[in-house]
Structures are given as structure tokens and as C-alpha cells.
Design goal:
It contains 4 helices and 11 strands; from the N terminus they run αββββββαβββαβαβ. By secondary structure, the protein is an alpha+beta fold. The protein folds into 2 domains: 3-100 and 231-237; 102-227, 3-Layer(aba) Sandwich (Aminopeptidase), CATH 3.40.630. It starts with a helix and ends with a strand.
């Protein structure tokens, strides 16, 4: 793959992820704004979701900061290309991660003993979200309106009747984004990835897959045919 292809795919991956963030925010009444260089939200976004996502590697702070609320605690920026320095603007680096990409058409490893199921009801979505979050009070992030979006699919990976894990798929920018991948208890996260990829191939056939992961969460994706594409960084405001 040439550097030009990598760069264009990185831009598409950033747009795909920004579309997913915007979709989640719309279900909370916070639609955000797309510009040439970034997507921004003037109101605070749901937990774990950024207030801005850069769309091009040449984005600068002036493309982002006027459109977000840095006065509210928890304001964050997804620097999709790891090119920004927001330290002088009151931000600290929260974590680094890597974009991942998997071409279309690669066979998916069989998921022996597991099956996938689309989440199609509000009650099932509550169960999925509780399994995704784990112990403690489940935050209000994934709302039933997501289930009406034809470009979004919530996937449950099941071992018999119980959750083994799950993921979210979103289709935009000519890609299928795979995010929020989780495995419950001692379930095999690589098998959950395989289940999510199988579901993606069924519902969004012929599309490359993208996402991002960090640390130990990266290895199961690589085991399922993904390759790293480039860096990204999350900045958190110190307000």
C-alpha cells in the first residue's frame, strides 16, 4: 500500500469515526458541526465521546477550539492523526492509540461455539450496554434511537443465551467502522472480533473495516487480519 493510499484511508477512517461520534451525540440532542478540518460539538458530549474529531492531518487548534466548550469538565479532542499540540491550550495527553484497517474479502476465522445476533429492541440494548460496561452503574450512552439508523448495527456475540461480547458497526466514508468491542468475563476477545467481522460482512458486504485500539486491546484485532494504519491521540482539557 502506497503512502498516498494510507493517507487517504486514514482520512476516511477519521471521517467514519467522526460520523459515529456525531450519530451518538445526535441521540443525546447534540448534533455537532462538520467543517473541512474537524467535527466539533459546542455542547458537552456523552461520556467517552470527544468534543471534537479532526478530519485532516493539517488541522490546527484554531479549527477546533472556537467550536467546543473547554470550560466544562471532561472536554476532549480526538486528534485523528497525532499532529496537534494542545498543551498550551490547557489540554493534557490522555492516551495514544493506533488506527487499524482490514481489507474487504479476507476470510474470517470461524467462531466455534459462538453466534452473533443483532440488537433490535430497547430492552436488549440495555442488556448489551450493561454487559459492555461491566460492574457498577451503567452510563446512559447508547440510546434506542441508534437502532433506527440504517447505517448503524449493534452486534451481540453470544455463547448460548449469555453475552460473550459485542461490538458496534457503522457504515460511512466507504468503510465499516468497528468500535466498542468487548468480551465478557473470560470470553475470547479475538473470537468476539471474528464474530463482529462476520456480522459486518453479512450486513455491510464488500467493505473494508476500520477502527482504533490501544495497548493489549490491539493484539486481538491484529490476530483477525487488521493492520495498523497510523497514530491518533486523545487530549483532555484540564478544566
Amino acid at each position: 500500500m502506497t503512502s498516498t493510499n494510507i493517507n487517504s484511508l486514514g482520512v476516511a477512517a477519521a471521517r467514519n469515526n467522526a460520523d459515529w461520534c456525531a450519530t451518538v451525540c445526535r441521540t443525546h440532542g447534540t448534533p455537532g458541526t462538520f467543517g473541512e478540518a474537524a467535527w466539533t460539538s459546542a455542547r458537552r458530549t456523552p461520556p467517552y465521546y470527544p468534543d471534537a474529531v479532526t478530519l485532516h492531518p493539517d488541522a490546527v487548534p484554531a479549527d477546533i477550539l472556537p467550536g467546543i466548550d473547554t470550560a466544562s469538565p471532561g472536554c476532549s479532542v480526538k486528534d485523528s492523526f497525532g499532529t496537534l499540540d494542545l498543551s498550551s491550550d490547557g489540554f493534557v495527553e490522555l492516551f495514544d492509540a493506533a488506527w487499524i484497517h482490514r481489507p474487504a474479502g479476507i476470510p474470517v476465522a470461524p467462531t466455534t461455539g459462538l453466534r452473533t445476533e443483532w440488537v433490535v429492541s430497547a430492552g436488549r440494548l440495555r442488556d448489551w450496554q450493561a454487559a459492555w460496561h461491566g460492574d457498577g452503574e451503567t452510563p446512559d450512552i447508547f440510546r434506542p434511537e441508534l437502532l433506527d439508523d440504517p447505517f448503524v448495527r449493534v452486534v451481540a456475540v453470544l455463547d448460548g443465551a449469555r453475552f460473550a461480547g459485542g461490538a458496534v458497526l457503522n457504515h460511512s466514508a466507504g468503510l465499516v467502522g468497528i468500535s466498542n468491542v468487548f468480551a465478557v468475563d473470560h470470553s475470547d476477545v479475538a473470537a468476539v472480533w471474528a464474530g463482529a467481522l462476520t456480522a459486518a460482512g453479512e450486513h455491510f458486504p464488500g467493505l473494508p473495516a476500520v477502527g482504533y485500539e490501544q495497548g493489549d486491546d490491539l493484539a486481538p484485532a491484529l490476530d483477525n487480519g487488521f493492520a495498523t494504519l497510523g497514530p491518533l491521540r486523545i487530549w483532555l482539557h484540564g478544566s
